[in-house]
Amino acid sequence: MTIRALHVASELYPLLKTGGLADVAGALPPALIERGADVRVLLPGFPAVAAGLTDVRPVAQLGRRFDAPGVTLEQGTLPSNGLIVYMIRAGTLYDRPGNPYLNEEHVPYGDNAQRFALLGWVAAQLAQHLDPAWAPQIIHAHDWHAGLAPAYLKAAERQHGRPLARSVFTVHNLAYQGVFPAHQFGQLALPDDFFSMRGIEFYGQLSFLKAGLYYSDRITTVSPTYAREIQTLAQGGGLDGLLRHRSHDLSGILNGVDYTVWNPASDALIANHYSAAKLGGKSACKEALQKRFGLAQKSDALLFGVVSRLTEQKGLDLLLEMVPEIVKRGGQLIVFGTGDPALENGLTRVAQAHPDSVAVELGFDETLAHMIVAGSDVIAVPSRFEPCGLTQLYALAYGSLPLVHCVGGLADTVVDASLENLADDLATGFVFDRFEPQGLGAAIRRAFALYGRHTEWKAAQRRAMQQDFGWGASAERYLALYRELA
Ligand code: ADP
Ligand code: GLC
């Protein structure tokens, strides 16, 4: 039996991306389709989404919803792979330039509750045959933006007196909870009793994330370690009680890599192609990278790269403290990303102090991201917490040994170059336990030490590149979950 599943998300690569969620939303549906499922995606009609779809046609007129007049549901096709995407058009609710969540001052839009309630509401309408030609059996909602989808579905089922579809809610990041003032509950058109501790109420406010966790039939998150971490008081973001209560419905399924996008043997965005068998070409990527960022052209300087959102989560303040250590040992560092102004300034100042060894550029650019992943010797991901992390997986594929904090998906995917792991041919990177300068410093020293041992470094690179973090196994696990539910 073919299972029909609707993925509900706020971003999707290559249409619109601010982080790893877009990579997952872009790669998981095709991986499920490849394995026989009938999968479609629902997105808000942000300008980049509307501009990137082809064969767009109307599916349904929805009138005035959540204060937006003339809401329509349209259907289009993603040109790169034929994926069918439903898109909600709701005038200025979505049709705004720039970041999908924040205004020009980097402040969340005042009407985000309505904007993302509409997304969840339309998902539940699709389960009620809003599109006469296709209705999902599974609604798979991602992160708080889609958190109300399971709630609207439960409300509709109560009204119809029968089940309409089953739901899966995937937590990509528990730190973003979609919390709004309680007085906005009235705008959501949910049954009154949903505003309750057993519902979407969260310490006197509304939480879209909690709605997803509470009303979905199954919860997944993006790595096994993170699935355990979020059930603890320390890392549960106030939701650990609910998560422990639902622990039988909660599982961790690791994200995968789309190797059609991230493969050094075919990547059109990098200076030179290379592979585990032919590693030689990587040095041209390093050379091009040093040149692009104005660093000293030294082939033997250990080059650390960072491609990241610049937020508290990513732990780059700790890396900043270690810059003198890297420079003192003759290493180099490139940081590329955007985010917190304080972190942006701190990084920029360090780069000014070490122009030959440290370069910092603020921005978001797919080509530069690929160039850095390919040209660096080490990709640093010292995150305080990391639900899965994709950058370290891309780094492995490119033989750029990841240096990571032992948390979440980082702990599940990188094996430290300890003596015993080297001896057993297991090492693929550098892992530190405690989030403090000594821990990170020791991992940095391990990287320098291994870099000094040419043969062992090459062996670790090959091993990293041979790891299979493709979507195959994870897509099978999601499919098994769908089958169980349907
Ligand atoms: P998160 O989703 O928390 O940001 P992930 O590691 O899961 O972390 O995914 C980050 C994704 O965003 C990767 O695809 C990475 O290449 C990309 N990315 C992060 N910062 C930038 C940037 N400044 N420019 C381009 N891509 C970026
Ligand atoms: C979130 C997490 C990241 C994860 C990504 C995709 O943004 O921060 O760890 O890889 O979602 O699941």
Automatic annotation (TrEMBL):
Residues 292-461 form the Glycosyl transferase family domain. Pathway: Glycan biosynthesis; glycogen biosynthesis. SUPFAM superfamilies: UDP-Glycosyltransferase/glycogen phosphorylase. Its EC number is 2.4.1.21. Coiled coil: none annotated. Transmembrane segments: none annotated. The keyword Transferase applies. ADP-alpha-D-glucose binds at K17. One of its GO terms (cellular component) is cytosol. GO terms for molecular function: alpha-1,4-glucan glucosyltransferase (ADP-glucose donor) activity; alpha-1,4-glucan glucosyltransferase (UDP-glucose donor) activity. It is an enzyme of class 2 (transferase). It catalyses: [(1->4)-alpha-D-glucosyl](n) + ADP-alpha-D-glucose = [(1->4)-alpha-D-glucosyl](n+1) + ADP + H(+). Residues 6-245 form the Starch synthase catalytic domain. Keywords: Glycogen biosynthesis, Glycosyltransferase, Transferase. InterPro entries: Glyco_trans_1, GS/SS, Starch_synth_cat_dom. GO terms for biological process: glycogen biosynthetic process. NCBIfam families: glgA (TIGR02095), PRK00654.1-2 (NF001899). Belongs to the glycosyltransferase 1 family. Bacterial/plant glycogen synthase subfamily. Synthesizes alpha-1,4-glucan chains using ADP-glucose. This is Glycogen synthase. The lineage of its organism: Bacteria, Pseudomonadati, Pseudomonadota, Betaproteobacteria, Burkholderiales. The gene is glgA.
